[in-house]
Amino acid sequence: MKRFACIFLVLVLMLSLLTGCASQSEEAAVDTPDETPAATETITMRLAEVHAEGYSTTMGNREFARLVEERTDGRIKIEVYPGGVLGDEKSVTEQVQFGALDFARVSLAPVTEFEPSLNVLMLPYLYKDGDHMFRILNGDIGNQLLANLEENGIVGLAWYDGGARNFYNTQREIKSPEDMRGLQIRVQETRLMMDLITALGASPVPLPFGDVYSALQTGVIDGAENNWPSYDSTGHYEVAKYFTVDEHIRIPEILMTNTKVMESLSAEDQEIIRQAAREAGEYQRTLWLQSEEESKQKVIDAGSVITYLESNEEFQEAVMPLYETHGAGYGDIIEAIINTN
Ligand code: BDP
Q1: pLDDT tens per residue, range 311-336
Q2: Model confidence over 240-289: pLDDT tens digits?
Q3: What residue range is the signal peptide (predicted)?
Q4: Could you tell me what percent of the chain has a pLDDT over 90?
Q5: What is the torsional sign of CA 198, 202, 205, 210?
Q6: What's the mean pLDDT in 54-82?
């Protein structure tokens, strides 16, 4: 009996060694440009998006998929899954990192949990405006920080616009940080955003984007913060009518993939993907600027109480400690961003 088991074990071992070799040679084949998927093979990939159909980022993703399919003569199909059906942003970021998902368009916030150096691109009151942010993202600083992401198995393909974020709540007009005291404010599930709320004297409640509406409605939270189009598209304006234009932060948004997914494609297809993503990013930004205006008008017409601040100095002062905590070690980059026109 014992001998039998022994022979069996040896056989199993030999078999596993043999199959190990086979998959290795397959892997080697993937690295050889000539042996990447045959030009006629059709590949279907998935892209995750939390926003609904019709939102600018979803439309950008659809444009990305269209361009890739067209330029590869239908060999690469990208299926876009909007509305968070593949998971919240924290989860899809992890899925892309592990290679379980091909693409995701997310806010940079969940990505900073893997690569903290990216926090430097989302410090409060860092950019003068959206154009300034895009000059940084598309310049040396943006490229350098994106390269850090590759060490985590993630390839950043394009930047999308997410505008400036503002506070809104169910309770009262916010005219100064003083008015935020005691409010429970939902934030994205990342340290920097939690610290920002604490610095302003309110209590942060980290929650996935899709849970915010009901949390506002049931009073689990008093408020949240986001850009005009998200405040509109999610219907948050229906339940939290006090909106303050404090523009405390601009968080870049990113279309990303996994390094192994990219490496499994021919150099030519990789370039098609990169180029299509860049064009989709530009397209999204055009749509973004229109949607900001449209959403603003829509929520005003629906009765939101919009508070414009004479100055946001008090907010700026209160959040400055975040430059120490989250920007530590990146003083040069911060200075370079501030000094870029
Ligand atoms: C929106 C972003 C989206 C984020 C969401 C949030 O477009 O990527 O998930 O905010 O606050 O503005 O979670």
Answers
A1: 999 999 999 999 999 999 999 999 99
A2: 999 999 999 999 999 999 999 999 999 999 999 999 999 999 999 999 99
A3: 1-24
A4: 87
A5: negative
A6: 98
- pLDDT confidence tier of residue 27, bands split at 50, 70 and 90: very low
The residue among 132, 125, 94 whose CA lies nearest residue 327 is: 125
pLDDT for the residue 35: 54
CATH number of 164-250+306-339: 3.40.190.170, 3.50.30.10, 3.40.1280.10, 3.30.70.120?
Answer: 3.40.190.170
Q: Give whole-number Cα distances, 336 to 121, 133, 143, 144, 341, in Å.
A: 12, 12, 14, 13, 10
CA distance 194 to 91: 19
203-206, strands of its sheet edge to edge: 203-206, 184-187, 223-226, 164-169, 242-250, 305-308
CA gap 110, 90 in Å, rounded: 5
Q: Quick one: average pLDDT of 81-86?
A: 98
Q: Which residue from 210, 238, 208, 233 is spatially nearest to 291, judged by alpha carbons?
A: 233
Could you check whether 42-162+251-294 and 164-250+306-339 share the same CATH topology? yes
Ligand 1 midpoint to CA 225 (Å): 10
Indicate the top mutation candidate among 49, 105, 111, 188 to test ligand 1's pocket, ranked by most ligand atoms within 8 A of CB.
Answer: 188
180 C-alpha to center of ligand 1: Å?
Answer: 21
Q: Based on C-alpha coordinates, what's the Rg of the chain?
A: 23
Residue ranges of domains in the chain: 42-162+251-294, 164-250+306-339
Q: Which CATH class is domain 42-162+251-294?
A: alpha beta
- Sign for the CA dihedral angle at 238, 176, 307, 195 comes to negative
The span from the CA of 124 to the CA of 324, in Å, is 12
Atom nearest to 187 CA in ligand 1 = 11
Mutate to test the pocket of ligand 1, among 216, 230, 247 (most ligand atoms within 8 A of CB): 230
pLDDT higher than threshold 80 for residue 94: yes
Residue ID of nearest Cα to ligand 1 atom 4: 107
Residue with the larger pLDDT of the pair 177 and 4 = 177
- Residue 31 scores a pLDDT above 80: no
